Amino acid sequence: MDPNAIIGSQVRDLGSHGRHGTLSGTTRVAGRYGGGLKFNGTSDYLDTGHPMAIGATEVRTFLLHVKAASGVAGVVMGVGKQLNGTWNRMQLNWSADKLRAYVRDDDYVLASSETGTETVADGKWHLLVFIVDPGGDKVELWIDDVLGIDVSAAFGAINTSPVPLNYGCLDNKGERSEYSAVTLSDLRMYSRRLSVAEMGDYRNGVIRR
How many whole angstroms separate alpha carbon 156 and alpha carbon 18? Predict the structure, then answer.
């Protein structure tokens, strides 16, 4: 999903999935490389149109550049769904200018609620690579090619369908909340892990599809 490929309120998916996102609000600005989206922290969001369906033996990698000022709050990206009186969840949210990776599976197993130690909300661009890997029982958050959160936990599938992943807020059970005043660019999702070399390429502007 590429902020450089915006037609009206639609953000085009330039990958093979063809799931185009829908913008509500947001301001088009310069990104880390190419175009970016600025979210106001009160009502702006990007609905990817893409529910999360991560099988118990699968992995998803989410890559993005983020910039935010100190004191920012809310959720950078997130989705959750009500399940038999409980809920699953997958999100990155702010905590004292740092990022927290929160992952809970369909059986209400908490895989991660860890907060990294690196300050990210400092008004500068940072590359985030968020890996949710039930198959390998791992949750990782890489910040500028450095492993900032590394959690090993036995957990299973995460299926939020029909609730889609959102950027700039949390879409929890189809209700949006926890909006975040961030600027984002270079939004990518993969059904595999990225190597550290690939992360370095992204950070240095070598953009892969």
Answer: 26
Give the closest residue to 98 by CA, choosing from 72, 125, 132, 127.
Answer: 72
Cis amide leading into 164 (omega within 30): no
The closest alpha carbon to 47, from 160, 127, 163, 161, belongs to 163
Q: Which residues pair with 18 in a beta bridge?
A: none
The answer, yes or no, to whether residue 162 has pLDDT greater than 60, is: yes
User: pLDDT tens-digit profile of 29-77?
Assistant: 999 998 999 999 999 999 998 899 999 999 999 999 999 999 999 999 9
Tokens of 63: 């890559």
pLDDT tier for residue 20 given thresholds of 50, 70 and 90:
low
Q: Which domains does the chain have, with CATH numbers?
A: 6-203 (2.60.120.200)
What pTM value is reported for the model? 0.91
C-alpha–C-alpha distance, residues 187 and 36, integer Å = 9
DSSP string covering the chain: --TTSEETTEEP--SSS---EEEES-EEEE-SSSEEEE--SSS-EEEEEEEEEE-TT--EEEEEEEE--TT--SEEEEEEEEETTEEEEEEEEEETTEEEEEEE-TT--EEEEEE-SS---SSS-EEEEEEEETTTTEEEEEETTEEEEEEE-----EEEEEEEEEESSEEETTEEE-----EEEEEEEESSPPPHHHHHHHHTT----
